[in-house]
Amino acid sequence: MNEYVSGVLDDLKKKYYWEKEFLQAAEEVLESLTPVVERDPKYKAAGILERIVEPERVVSFKIPWQDDKGNTRINSGYRVEFNSAIGPYKGGMRFHPSVNQGILKFLGFEQIFKNSLTSLPMGGGKGGSDFDPKGKSDAEVMRFCQSLMTELYRHIGPNTDVPAGDIGVGGREIGYMFGQYKRIVNRFEGVLTGKGLNWGGSLVRPEATGFGAVFFAEEMLKANGTDFSGKRVMLSGSGNVAQYAAQKINQLGGTVISMSDSAGSIIDENGISGERWEYLMDLKNNRRGRIKEYADEYGVPYYDAKRPWGLTKADVALPCATQNEISGDDAQELVKNGVIAVAEGANMPSTPEAVEVFLGNKIPFGPGKAVNAGGVATSGLEMSQNSMRLNWSAEEVEEKLHTIMVNIHRSCAEAAEEYGTAGNYVNGANIAAFKKVADSMLDQGLVF
Ligand code: NDP
Hints:
This protein is an alpha/beta fold. The protein has 17 helices and 12 strands. It has helices at 3-15, 20-39, 42-45, 48-52, 101-117, 138-152, 171-185, 205-223, 240-251, 274-286, 292-298, 328-336, 352-360, 368-371, 373-388, 394-418, 425-444; strands at residues 57-66, 72-83, 89-95, 123-129, 161-164, 232-235, 255-261, 264-267, 302-304, 316-318, 341-343, 365-366. A hairpin with a 2-residue loop joins strand 7 (255-261) and strand 8. The longest helix has 25 residues, at 394-418. It is globular, with a radius of gyration of 21 Å. The mean pLDDT is 97. The structure holds NADPH dihydro-nicotinamide-adenine-dinucleotide phosphate. The site of NADPH dihydro-nicotinamide-adenine-dinucleotide phosphate has 22 residues, from helix 9. Keywords: NAD, Nucleotide-binding, Oxidoreductase. Homohexamer. One of its GO terms (molecular function) is nucleotide binding.
């Protein structure tokens, strides 16, 4: 790390010492950018690093709502509008008790680079609330979403900031938020993505993050002369990303041997496919049950409070649950168990220690901002369809998604090579993404 980069990082650590996840994400990106700022002094001269690590705007507000018993409840809501150099702020809303401003800054910061990699005109943003949808009735979720949007609507818009889903925010929540936005502004417009198909949504958007992650992993395998056929694939999570990653892996001939939720993991040596995959979809999306019920249904082992990483042998690992879910020790277990590629479906699921283990062992490692960019890319395609007022077929959308993922893989690989770290997708993703945003900031002058 050179003096300019370490100076920016030190200042950030002093200023936001309690925002652990944000500092972790910033450090990873800034470290990768050292050769870029050394090669081209224009970035330092314009203070690009100092500017890119600060959100352009952070909105924080309270969300009062009433539960089914008539009790008053209060949650915190946020929208981090991080960077608009290449397009309107774009990024999901997360509803989870762990949400705070630091977590959303980490996600918003990552989103700047992810969105840049898609090659679509989208800036970086993220939002959410510490509300926990688990165990809430539909009516409670609706009242909460309506209250949230009653404040959020004034900060967003189709050309300003376009939120989407993330952990805890799926089709149901997007529906309630969209309905309230439309009611307040009296306009039917593409202010959110992940919408229902009947009211402006895109085919393949629900599948996009999982499918895209598998397309990226497939490119990583191809670069090493192999593919998914016959591979044992370990997944974590059992939400949106994990569900459709599983479906695509099955289509490509791999076997999905694990899934998890926040309570524990299952191992199914038969593979989570066909009727078993359908059961999982119903369990998680309709009955909103726990992964343990899958183990009870099919008589497979369930590991309470455990992540899957050390539980059995695997060829490929796709962490698809949440941040920091692979520790350095977990990574060692994966390496010991024969993993030949790791692709992050979730955002920053690997701790810095885990990344070090993968890179140190020359295991191809795809970082979340590249691997899971298919979700936001397809959100971008949803915005295009809304603007054109037409709908593409599922085949058209999937084809475009596939092309985008192949291109992201290529630009990460090329940037890594250009800056002397061939095969390092972390550096490649950060460098390729940064240059486009930074050059746009230079073009637009000192506005943020
Ligand atoms: P979902 O809410 O649909 O699923 C999340 C899954 O992860 C659930 O199985 C959940 O278990 C588990 N999980 C959540 N928090 C924890 C935790 N603290 N410890 C262990 N397990 C946990 O979310 P998504 O599938 O949409 O998102 C998964 C990841 O992918 C996130 O990192 C998200 O930011 C990222 N991502 C999502 C995109 C999308 O389009 N949806 C786009 C790009 C990235 P439980 O049900 O028990 O909470």
